[in-house]
From TrEMBL:
<feature type="binding site">
    <location>
        <position position="249"/>
    </location>
    <ligand>
        <name>Ca(2+) 2</name>
    </ligand>
</feature>
<feature type="binding site">
    <location>
        <position position="75"/>
    </location>
    <ligand>
        <name>Ca(2+) 1</name>
    </ligand>
</feature>
<keyword id="KW-0560">Oxidoreductase</keyword>
<comment type="similarity">
    <text>Belongs to the peroxidase family. Classical plant (class III) peroxidase subfamily.</text>
</comment>
<feature type="site" description="Transition state stabilizer">
    <location>
        <position position="67"/>
    </location>
</feature>
<feature type="binding site">
    <location>
        <position position="72"/>
    </location>
    <ligand>
        <name>Ca(2+) 1</name>
    </ligand>
</feature>
<dbReference type="GO" id="GO:0140825">
    <property type="term" value="F:lactoperoxidase activity"/>
</dbReference>
<comment type="function">
    <text>Removal of H(2)O(2), oxidation of toxic reductants, biosynthesis and degradation of lignin, suberization, auxin catabolism, response to environmental stresses such as wounding, pathogen attack and oxidative stress. These functions might be dependent on each isozyme/isoform in each plant tissue.</text>
</comment>
<dbReference type="GO" id="GO:0005576">
    <property type="term" value="C:extracellular region"/>
</dbReference>
<dbReference type="GO" id="GO:0020037">
    <property type="term" value="F:heme binding"/>
</dbReference>
<keyword id="KW-1015">Disulfide bond</keyword>
<keyword id="KW-0479">Metal-binding</keyword>
<feature type="disulfide bond">
    <location>
        <begin position="202"/>
        <end position="237"/>
    </location>
</feature>
<feature type="disulfide bond">
    <location>
        <begin position="73"/>
        <end position="78"/>
    </location>
</feature>
<dbReference type="GO" id="GO:0006979">
    <property type="term" value="P:response to oxidative stress"/>
</dbReference>
<dbReference type="InterPro" id="IPR019793">
    <property type="entry name" value="Peroxidases_heam-ligand_BS"/>
</dbReference>
<feature type="disulfide bond">
    <location>
        <begin position="124"/>
        <end position="332"/>
    </location>
</feature>
């Protein structure tokens, strides 16, 4: 009898341990879906409405908001550090790695509305992640829950952004920069596929077209670009043209779909880091797995996997709970 009681107790203990593990997994550390459901019940609806309005007046802001989450989360974690402005070009956002970053004023606009309704409650770091989630859905991508409960950092350093991935990084560097943030090479491929929407400035491909290092110390064009595509790119981006913008997903710019994988597979990646995904067997396999038209029906399922990867990226280095390191900013571009 005693043995039976002990085994029941052991079973209960192990099942509650299992439950604890499960709930820890579901709540992503101390983040949780619906964190503001009591403290600011309209928080997510307010962000969604601001993003919807911004996208209606300027659709290019939607991809910009998706990119903004990447740039916030990869520097010091998802803590709103990229939103801080001012300070004689010493803020993180002034780093060249953030070149062309837009959508910060959309976050400021959402924050102003949230402060009017629930002062001091919703963090800027959470607004960035919610806005990116909504932007994905409004460009035709998946709709998904994101856990919230992040606090904002009290730090923004120019040099912290040096570690951001770069268009010139090779596949090994890209992999290690993602690994440093707890993300796998599958995440690298999935998240780079956010380039299914949006554009790049010619600035980012100038070197790929005209100044690419070749054997023997020469420079020229990246030899992996098929000749016809190279002429096309050169016609769009003349030497020294930094500002013209072109689709990152050739032929499918406005649509959230898997064509970016086929473009990468067929040599039509526009920026170097996307092309690099086809330079290592492990990432080639991931690109190929999502490229086939049949994967839409039989998996792997890009939309679901992309959403999961966004949630994982949104969990990088978060400040949560009673941790004194963070605050909830009143204005996203300024420390309290
Ligand atoms: C793997 C490393 C990555 C590199 C080197 C990279 C680089 C770039 C570059 C150079 C641009 C063009 C920026 C401009 O001219 O305005 C861009 C745009 C974009 N990136 Fe990435 N990116 C990377 C990963 C990501 C990730 C992880 C996401 C989000 C999940 C993302 C989302 C976007 C989006 C949506 C755009 C279009 C922005 C717009 O149209 O304004 N990127 N990226």
């Amino acid at each position: 009898m005693a043995t039976r009681r002990r085994s029941i107790a052991a079973a209960l203990a192990s099942s509650s341990f299992f439950f604890l593990l499960l709930s820890a997994g579901l709540s992503h550390g101390q983040l949780q879906v619906g964190f503001y459901s009591q403290s600011c019940p309209n928080a997510e609806a307010i962000v969604a409405s601001v993003v919807r309005q911004a996208g209606a007046s300027n659709p290019t802001l939607l991809p910009a908001l998706i990119r903004l989450q990447f740039h916030d989360c990869f520097v010091r974690g998802c803590d709103g550090s990229v939103l801080i402005k001012g300070g004689n070009n010493k803020a993180e956002v002034d780093n060249n790695k953030h070149q062309g970053l837009r959508g910060l004023d959309v976050i400021d606009g959402a924050k102003a509305q949230l402060e009017a309704q629930c002062p001091g409650v919703v963090s800027c770091a959470d607004i960035v992640v919610l806005a990116a989630r909504d932007a994905v859905a409004f460009t035709g991508g998946p709709s998904f829950d994101v856990p919230t409960g992040r606090r904002d950092s009290k730090v923004s350093n120019l040099r912290d952004a040096d570690s951001l991935p770069d268009v010139k990084d090779g596949i090994d560097v890209l992999r290690s920069k993602f690994a440093a943030n707890g993300l796998s090479e599958k995440d690298l491929v999935l998240l780079s596929a956010a380039h299914t929407v949006g554009t790049t400035a010619c600035f980012f491909i100038q070197d790929r077209l005209y100044n690419f290092p070749l054997p023997g110390g020469a420079v020229g064009s990246d030899p992996t670009i098929p000749p016809g595509f190279l002429s096309e790119l050169k016609a769009r981006c003349a030497p020294g043209d930094f500002n013209t913008r072109l689709s990152l997903d050739r032929g499918s710019e406005g649509v959230f779909d898997t064509s970016i994988f086929r473009n990468i597979r067929n040599g039509f990646a526009v920026i170097g880091s996307d092309a690099a995904l086809y330079n290592a067997t492990s990432t080639v396999d991931v690109v190929d797995s999502y490229s086939g038209l049949l994967s839409t029906f039989f998996g792997p399922y890009f939309r679901q996997d992309f959403a999961d990867a966004m949630v994982r990226m949104g969990s990088i280095g978060v400040i949560t709970g009673k941790n004194n390191n963070g605050e909830v900013r009143k204005v996203c571009s300024k420390f309290n």
